[in-house]
TrEMBL record:
Compartments where found: Cell membrane; Membrane
Keyword Hydrolase among record annotations: no
UniProt KW Membrane keyword: yes
Region (Disordered), start-end ranges: 74-95
Keywords, in A-Z order: Cell membrane, Membrane, Transcription, Transcription regulation, Transmembrane, Transmembrane helix
Domain Putative zinc-finger: 8-37
Ranges for domain Anti-sigma K factor RskA C-terminal: 108-248
Source organism of this protein record: Streptomyces fagopyri
Protein name: Regulator of SigK
């Protein structure tokens, strides 16, 4: 991919439509290309405003189809050797007394194999159940995020963050919720994560974590607005902190 090709990816990057490899290459390019970085900030803000006008949630049919497919995926059947065209006459077999130790080992092997297969079945069941739970959680959060962006009373405010990044906060007083949309943020240091906070008259209340592997994303703030007048962003250890341990990278006031 040439540099001229990278210039054409601003729209796809702003809409999170690039694969991991393309996203990494574009982010390296945008770090040295102010024109692309500025265009990404503008397109991200535009996408956020378009989301305020109209949004479509996940249909029940799509959910039912995904959940049904999860429970019907089966393991591939074992391969068998082709049958021989003719079976030679069976040889005369002599009864041979086998050592008792061999039988005990064979029995032990069968028991171990049965336990292994049983354990595999339990593991697969647990993974399928975990996948269904994650799918339901992701669907619920996506629906809530979409509802905030599409709320009739939704208001937004866009600000420029440190390092040339962009940030837009969308607030719905009726839903008592807010969404933060980032664009072009530098990845946090290794072992760190960006944490969002509600600003309650100078007291910071945790509002969730951002994905440390993404530099642009839309995040539904975790919790209700209550009396918060704005939000802040800090760099915290992986897993987050109960209270901010560093100075805010940015503090955004909620739109009136």
């Amino acid at each position: 991919m040439t540099t001229s090709d990278l210039h054409t990816l601003t729209g796809a990057y702003a809409l999170h439509a690039l694969g991991e490899e393309e996203r990494d290459r574009f982010e390296r390019h945008a770090a040295d290309c102010e024109a692309c970085a500025q265009e990404v900030r503008e397109l991200t803000a535009t996408a956020a405003r378009l989301g305020l006008a109209e949004a479509a949630g996940i249909t029940p049919e799509l959910k039912a189809r995904v959940m049904r497919r999860i429970t019907t995926v089966r393991q591939e059947a074992p391969r068998t050797a082709p049958a021989t065209p003719a079976t030679p006459p069976a040889p005369v077999l002599r009864r041979v007394r086998r050592p008792r130790g061999l039988s005990r080992w064979a029995l032990a092997a069968c028991v171990a194999a049965a336990a292994a297969f049983g354990g595999t079945a339990v593991w697969q069941h647990d993974r399928a159940r975990e996948a269904r739970t994650q799918a339901r959680d992701a669907e619920r959060r996506t629906a809530d995020l979409t509802a905030v962006l599409a709320a009739p009373d939704a208001k937004s405010r866009t600000a420029r963050l440190a390092g040339g990044a962009g940030g837009t906060v969308v607030v719905s007083a009726a839903r008592d919720e807010a969404v933060f949309i980032s664009s072009g943020m530098a990845k946090p240091p290794s072992g760190k994560v960006y944490q969002l906070w509600f600003d309650d008259a100078g007291t910071m209340r945790s509002a969730g974590l951002m994905d440390p592997h993404r530099t642009s994303e839309a995040v539904l703030l975790d919790g209700k607005l209550a009396k918060a007048s704005g939000m802040g962003i800090t760099v915290e250890p992986a897993g987050g902190s109960a209270r901010p341990t560093s100075a805010p990278l940015a503090v955004l006031e909620f739109p009136a």
